[in-house]
Amino acid sequence: MRRTALLASAALLTALLPLTTAATASGADDPPPAPVDRFEGEVPFAGQPAEGIFTWGGDADDPPALQLADRADAPEGAKVLSGSYDISGYGGFTHDFAADRPAHDWSAHKGIRLWWDGQDNGKEIAFEIKDGGANGEASELWTTSFTDDFTGWKQIEIPFTDFTYRTDYQPVGGIDHVLGLTEMWGYAVTLPVGVKGRFAMDDVELYGRADQSLRASVTTDSAVYPVEEGGTAQVKVTVATTGNVPLDEPVTVTYATAGGTAEPGTDYTPVDGTLTFPAGTASGTTHTVEVPTLRDKAAEPAETVPLKLTVTGAKAPAEIPQAVIDAHGLPYLDSRLPVRKRVADLLSRMSLEEKAGQMTQAERAALTSQGDIAAYGLGSLLSGGGSTPTPNTPEAWAKMVDSFQLRTRATRFQIPLIYGVDAVHGHNNLAGATIMPHNIGIGATRDPRLAEQTGEVTASEVRATGVPWDFAPCLCVSRDERWGRSYESFGEDPALVESMETIIQGLQGRANGKDLSRDDKVLATAKHFVGDGGTEYGSSTTGSYTIDQGVTKVTRQQLEAVHLAPYRTAVDRGIGSVMPSYSSLDVLGDGRGPVKMHARADMINGVLKGRMGFDGFVISDWAAIDQLPGDYASDVRTSVGAGLDMIMVPYAYKDFLTTLTDEVKAGRISERRIDDAVSRILTQKFRLGLFEHPYADTSGAARIGSPAHRAVARRAAAESQVLLKNAHGVLPLKKDQKVYVAGSNADDLGNQTGGWTITWQGASGTHTQGTTVLQGMRKAAPDATITYSKDASAPLDGYDVGVVVVGETPYAEGVGDVGNGNDLELSAADKAAVDRVCGAMRCAVLIVSGRPQLIGDRLGGIDALVASWLPGTEGDGVADVLYGRRPFTGQLPVTWPRSQDQLPINVGDASYDPQFPYGWGLTTLTGVPQGGTATLKALARAAAAAERTGSARAGRAIVTRARLIVQRKAGSAMTEAFAGPFADADHLLLTGRYAAAVAKLTEAYRAA
Fold it and tell me: Signal peptide span per the entry (predicted)?
């Protein structure tokens, strides 16, 4: 049935009705419908920034196939949008308006409607609209749905009042959580999952007239108003309109204090009355209601005084505002008492439900409403990778965290939240923050003091945004470079990882926790306990991952020596929290087989908390308990019983709380275990000073991204560069040379910073502030001729030297696993750039990557080769060593393989024949030591003396001198006889056995 026929029938019906009835039926005062999509070809299939319709989905086979199809029964016009789908994960399509033109204003209309060709499959069709922000891919998403429980065409009308803010996913992380309707960027349709089907839709349009109750709203400046006992809460009530136009009709707000936990007349003076905003009142007009509280002499928990508002003529506030009389006089609030006494006092007052809340951590964007923080007594929130406020500024971060913290004031004991982020190489979720090299680059520096300084910078920038907790450092010992998390490791040698754990003091301060309350320190997290770096290739059962979250098979001795060793050091350094791994541990010979780490009570309770004496708290990984076998109750029971104190349940916080309390009440989880968990959490909250200062201290915000902080990152980038080959003295460059620069990573800040930067996976391009390698080179040699051609297509004649910067594009976790769409080869374009430049001139090749890349087939044609790792935002640091402002001093933190077939290959292996051994790193120091076997003999004696006297500094210097002598002789001609003892020497150095290290280097010298 065509829409024209419907309209004709409606016109005939109207003619038969009385005049007043006809006017009402046709909506005479309504504006005419405003078309959004007619699907006659006026909108192309295209993506941002152009206007267009495009598909999306979780996997390659998820997006639907779309077409503009001729249909004789089209409700409007001749064509409809139709398609087929077979979606396993998620998928749908979007119409985005052009980003380079103004957004659309839908505020004059009541809602949006469309024609849908029903298949009667009983499935929900999600329909969302895009409000505010910069464009359709950076706007707030508001969603509703309808059920396909009919056959044939049906017009679906959706009033704007039906749309709710999406809490599970927002591309921008939230703008104002208000459906403004004046800046609309389009709509999206999410199609059903798990059913193969087809669909058709037509004529999307705006309909009806928006009444004032939709266009006008009453708000309060807060939902919670904490006051000290005897103080007066001031509730500001504001009327606002879409488009900021004056009120058409009067708005009245009747208010009265009622309910809550405070006693009227005893704890506060009741108030009531009416506020009137007459017609013509300007949008933004505010009146204030005062709620006086009364003073008594009793020590009390916090008490609430709700102020109920009844609104006529406008939309009422989403929440009832409430004044809160702060808790006072209770021992746990006395900062003079020892922490253990404060914890004991508070714990003794808490209900089971309140304790369960403290053990619960939710993703901040997953909150149904901020009121859930108090309603469920949540103990913690986090920002996952890319979960940021809008705008993504330090001020917005602090305001966001403070808004969450304010909600805790409406709970009985006003226990503050502990907010956590993955600041794994700087405050990497924050645009403009100082981004350090990833851990693999820090391991390459072999500089524990520098590692500590990077932690200091990170802590300072994180805490200045109101965040007191960092899910770092990663203490994995990476044993297979096919792992997508390789770059999160300091290296393949547990001794190297242990030496870099000075970063914990940079983050937390002194090991006794006395510095945690400072405005430049955060609680650190050792992760991922234990063995995540040892997972076996092909053992992962998570989606398409090949190694991440897989199984680590080790003997008890290997477990202790390799994977547990860094955690002993972390506990000694006072680490405040520990996060178990997603992976499974299979200890050979114990008869248990692979067991998920989140279920290993023997390791968490037994080894970590028991034998090692860890007194912090254990936090689960993201939704990790869902991977345990059994039903949800079993997951909760097993993980808490295994020793997990706080559970990261990003989207399932309500289910978790209910299940946890039910399990305790049923006696399947002991109250003693709950009390232990909550005591550990509260201890760290007290140490952090959150009870005294729950809100952000932004006094250090000016240091975020400051020159002083970037100087630390620049030095880290410089020291992380590992010079693998340097024939003909190509490096350092001279400032008067004509330099030809090429390669995909020479001028790409996103590739240079890698994963876990602004978003979880990271992205190519410019998404934060920093300096690329190319920009750094131009700053280092401002008068030099430096030509850049990404693909090396520009003419190659007339240059003294070429610099080709190649490598990986960003990834994180199992998404980056080799075999999951990734390998260790350079891209075809990068190989071509290397071949073109190095075939035409002397060249240096820089590999910007999170792990070694296979370069052996081109090594002979490359004069200088540099492992640049992922140096962060400060490309100036890379330029510093290229131009000799600093010497190359970095050493390989992992073995550089000849081929992928050698993997895994690590220092200490019985068979060890790499391209470059662990610990290798040439230098451009001007005074490179010389000598031979006689010199090495003398160094061996000096090393033994340094070892006897405990002179670590002298011992390291002696071994370094011996290493440089050996490297000079070896050149780049590596043999198995040379590589093994050379790599062993670096491990011995890190464990303080200087004489043995020189002996191994002497053995390598003889084999060279």
Answer: 1-25
